Amino acid sequence: MRHSLTLTIGPARFRIGSAWKEPIARLRALYAAYPQEEGVADFTVRLEPAGVGRRWWRPSVRIAGDHMLPDALPMALRHGLLAAEMGMNLQMALGWRRHLLIHASSVEKDGRALVMTGESGSGKSTLAALLGERGWRFMGDEFALIDLADGKVHPFPRLVSLKNASVAAMRVEVVDGARFGPLMRGTPKGDIAHLVPPAAATARMGEAAAPALLLFPRYGFARDIRPVGQGEAFMRLTQASTNYVALGEAGFETLHRFVTGVPALAVDYESGEEALELIDALWADLS
Amino acid sequence: MGEPAIWCRCNEGEILLRQIDGLMLAYHRPSGLTHMLASPLPEIWGALDAEPVSAETLLERLSAHYDLGKNALAELTAHLEELAALGLIRERACATA
Question: How far apart are the first and last CA of chain B?
Answer without folding.
Answer: 23
